[in-house]
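ESCALATION

Customer reports they have been waiting on this structure for their group meeting. Please prioritize. Original submission:
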Amino acid sequence: MPAQLIKGAEVSKQIREEITKEVEELKEKHGITPGLATILVGEDPGSKVYVGQKEKACNNLGIYSARTDLPADTSEADLLDLVKKLNDDPKIHGILCQLPLPKHVDATRVIYAIDPDKDVDCFHPVNVGKLMIGKGRFLPCTPNGIMELLKRYDVATEGKHVVVVGRSNIVGKPIANLMLQRSPGGNATVTLCHTGTKDLAAFTKMADILIVAIGQPKAITADMVKEGVVVIDVGVNRIGKTPEGKGILAGDVDFDSVQEKAAAITPVPGGVGPMTITMLMKNTVEAAKATISD
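Update from on-call: job pushed to the front of the queue and completed.
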């Protein structure tokens, strides 16, 4: 029997409806409009699309959007000056500098320059540290989206064996940490696998919940999972085009074969992807709400 589909597009829509109500309440009761500043340096096509999607989401949810597009030869000093201005701007509650940055700009310095209270991507080491001890104001967007999917599809995590494939700072490490924490939606036993893991299938076969974020199309196949596993596929890989020129996407999991063994699985597209920008919007609202008591 094919697996239940975990539809991020539908969950994302539900959360955006909740966000819209929160934004309206902030405006009516406190006179606060959540504000997100996005910075795009250069002409990277993918980055332009992502920033455009974030700007559109802000507009749809009633969030103030301040977008700054800079030429690729912008100096690191000028970029840091812009970040400082946004840090000091009371209308801005969240700051996002789209990565990757041009090679002459030190991305780490830029991330460190963002006020941790406005770091809605949760990349600043202060926020990463708070996440590690379970005291984070914000949660990283994609891992937080995964947590919401599991919660809203009633996937039990306590005592389960969660296997994470991929150790990036954006997805793998933070989701492993969140699943470990003694809190609702966590309290799992976690194994973190990566490129240095020998006999990867030996670990993935043990997973009750398998989270894959490695950027390799269809790397996880049916013979690498057990019956009844819940699969969260974070990968989005372009593997070709249709005769009409439309891009063909594939996840890091071989969906067609694995869905026959899984209890539930995220599709690509329409699974984890829609959750990331939605959780960014949620973090921006949380940052705005925090100013009420600060």
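Sent to customer with the following note: The chain has two domains: 30-116, 141-273.
Escalation resolved.
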